[in-house]
Amino acid sequence: MKIKRYFAADMRRAIQMVREEQGADAVILSNRKVNGGVEVMAAVDYDAEVINHMAEESPVQRNDSSPISEKDSVVDSPESIKELPLSDVPIGEPRIRSTVSPLRKEIEWSQDPALVAMKDELHQLSGVVLNQINGLAWGEMRQKHPLYVKVMQYLMRMGLSPELCRTVADHIQFRDSMAENWRQAMAFLSSQIQVGDDDILTEGGIVALVGPTGVGKTTTIAKLAARYILRHGSDKVALVTTDCYRIGAYQQLETYGRILGLTVYVANSSEELNDTLEMLGDKQLVLIDTAGVSMRDERLISQGAMLAESRFPIRSYVVLSTTTQRQSQEEVVKGYNQLDFDGVILTKLDETVVLGDALSVAINHQLPISYICDGQMVPEDIHLARANNLVNRGVSMIQESTELPDEERVALTFGDLAGKAYG
Fold first, then answer.
1. Would the pLDDT of 96 be above 90?
2. Which of 40, 103, 141, 346 sits CB 3.0–4.6 Å from 14 for a disulfide?
3. Alpha-carbon distance 362 to 330, whole Å?
């Protein structure tokens, strides 16, 4: 067995020296940093017994030059040594690392620029190959199932998420009739929409609306309060606001309260909210208007905590504007993850051109849709949600426009989904 020590400025040069002198069958036994570079011990025609004897007799230095005990030797069993010939060692800077078991060691490669570049290149190549596979898959789908393509176009036009589009399309028993295929698609979509089984206007209780600024929380509270007053009288309702941040937030709710003959109470903390709710114990319906803050605002956590930590049972509803993009709606729902939502209230249906974004978020998070708001009129423009009505409304929106996503966009969506499946 021939064992030799090599000194070089860096690990790349050391491996090159070993390869040039001892060949591709050489085995790296150890490496460590030294003044001026690195020291590498390599061997060819090695004898396992000799190596094990060396490991037992001689202390070994870690690559950070700190001494280690004999049981932490860089030399492993003969079987593991045979798995590390120089021909299999990439050009980089390896360091020997002991794992939990002292009898098992690994080589862990550092972030050498050449290795990082190689990794990036391999990632790009895998992306090219995957795109080609997706292209072939899409081409085959386009040729064999043109009606599938057409259905996907209409579903995407509704604003549904790519994953939901694929799920709906995959549940269709395709026929030659596009009308029949579309009927199946809408029936399945309707079955995926959950609607609230509790009616705030019937059950009453303590109800809080949460969501970012501008989604219509305050106006929605006014609509609910007005509807309840028409049924039960103004002495059964109370309004509370925790929005102490926005200028004019209290004034807006106070204006509605004055019109409806209701007093508006302010709670600035969890203690104040609990005290206020205890004081309003004789009310059948207490509506809480929370602060509308950005999803990245640290005050969001405190707002959610006020509701989650209350001594009183509070039903929380997230208010989503249907004019907001799906990604932003997802952030709203995730931002209040400390709350167990009782439902969703969709607003501004009269202003949006697609309903699929909001439907996708509700379906994705399995949140029941309780109410929809489609105008500023108080109390007229609020309605109980019905799955079939929501689907019909979404379809009517796309019927007003003949513009559909082109096949290239559908193909990209199909490819992204196929990529996730392969990944």
1. no
2. 40
3. 9
| 348 torsion bin: left (phi>0), alpha (psi -120 to 50), beta (else) | left
- Helices marked H in 309-369 — which ranges? 326-335, 356-364
Query: Same domain for 372 and 339?
Result: yes
Measured CA to CA in angstroms, residue 199 lies from 184, 285, 315 at distances of 30, 12, 11
Place of tokens 């003949």: 402
Q: Are residues 130 and 102 in the same domain?
A: no
Give the number of domains in the chain: 3
Q: Report how far residue 390's alpha carbon sits from residue 371's, in angstroms, rounded to the nearest whole number.
A: 11
Sign of CA dihedral 269, 274, 275, 280: positive
Full residue range of the structural domain in which residue 68 is found? 2-110
Which pTM does this prediction carry?
0.64
- Residue pLDDT, tens place only, 42-85: 887 655 565 555 555 554 444 444 443 333 333 333 333 333 44
Q: What is the pLDDT of residues 363-388, one digit of tens each?
A: 999 999 999 999 889 989 999 999 99
The three-class DSSP label of residue 170 is helix
